Amino acid sequence: MKRALQRGDYVEIHWIDIQESPAGDPAEAYLAQRKSLGVFWEYKDESGVPVLVTTTTVDADGETGQTGWCIYPTACVQSIRTIRRARKPKK
User: Fold this and answer.
1) Cβ–Cβ < 8 Å for 32, 18
2) What domains sit in the chain, N to C, each tagged with a CATH number?
3) Which pairing describes strands 65-73 and 77-84: parallel, antiparallel, or unpaired?
């Protein structure tokens, strides 16, 4: 049985972003598929929209990064892969 994500799991998120080109040709439009790495925080409801929250997010290409948090509408998330499980809390 696959374990659900828990706070602290290090994950890779594949998601769809907005792609814009004010001067471009609409016939050439394509989805911006991105991959980010982060620490899972929680799933929650934000203003009626289900979202995924991560902390310390870095784009997998290594070019851009963000410290703090990142919130993804779950409808934009294509897949989540667990890279490393969080340590279980000691009892």
Assistant:
1) yes
2) 10-16+32-84 (2.30.30)
3) unpaired
Residue 51 structure tokens? 């979202």
pTM assigned to the model:
0.80
Instruction: Report how far apart, in Å, the C-alpha atoms of 89 and of each of 14, 20, 64, 81, 85 are.
Output: 28, 44, 32, 22, 12
Q: What is the mean pLDDT of each run of 10 residues along the chain (91 residues)?
A: 85 92 86 91 96 82 71 96 87 71
Q: Map tokens 């598929």 to a residue.
A: 33
The answer to whether the CB of 58 falls within 8 A of the CB of 79 is no
Beta bridge partners of 16: 33
